[in-house]
Amino acid sequence: MALRMPPLETDRLVIRPYVMDDLEAVYRLFDRDIYAVPDSELETARRDREEWLRWSALNPEQLARLYQPPMGDRAMVLKESGELIGSCGYNPSPIPWGLLASHRAGPEAPIDDRCDLEMGLYWALATAHRGQGYATEAARALIDYAFAHWNLRRVVAITGHDNAASIGVMRRLGMSVESNPFPGPHWFQVVGVIESP
């Protein structure tokens, strides 16, 4: 298993570890654009974002030293301009497979809400760069890397029922997509799964 993940390149993107020089771009991306933090909370958000960035920049090397896979966020950067337009990466995703009809022995089978820990994908994109295929391109590179270098059985992604854009990315990646018919857990509403070829 390759523990130190190199920057990944696609036709239009570089997916690389974060560095502290990314602070202004990350602050604009997350706190001003994606999460639209109110002005009254921006000073606290900036301190929190700087702490997050420090952790994210150190994370790949520290995980490799512990012989752990490179979980965490990576910068999604336009190859041509170097502009940071989003974040993507791997995260541990607890999946309660037994809530889904496709994973139960039948309609009368007992519901099992215990979780299996799976390799999950994450992506977030600046508003101005959505709808141009960047999330799909980045996620495809992450999936290909995970299958080629970690010999995984599958990769998952989870999102909310109302996140049509992410569900669309899952479908374009060739994931099978299924909704949780139960009200909880709140973080497990829609799951996409892609199996190793």
Describe, in short, the structure shown.
With 197 residues, the protein is α+β, with helices and mostly antiparallel strands. It has helices at residues 23-34, 42-65, 134-150, 164-172, and strands at 8-9, 13-16, 72-78, 84-95, 116-125, 154-159, 176-179, 190-195.
What does the secondary structure layout of this molecule look like, with pairings?
Blueprint: E1 8-9, E2 13-16, H1 23-34, H2 42-65, E3 72-78, E4 84-95, E5 116-125, H3 134-150, E6 154-159, H4 164-172, E7 176-179, E8 190-195
Antiparallel strand pairs: 1-2, 2-3, 3-4, 4-5, 6-8, 7-8
Query: Structural class of the secondary elements?
Result: alpha+beta
The strand order across the widest sheet is: 1-2-3-4-5
Strands, total number? 8
**Which word captures the global form?**
globular
CATH architecture: 3-Layer(aba) Sandwich
Largest sheet: 5 strands, antiparallel
Strand content range: 25-35%
Domain count, please report it.
1
The SSE order reads EEHHEEEHEHEE
H/I helix tally? 4
- Mean of pLDDT: 93
Query: Span between N and C termini?
Result: 18 Å
Feature tags:
alpha+beta, Aminopeptidase, five-stranded antiparallel beta sheet, 4 helices, 8 strands
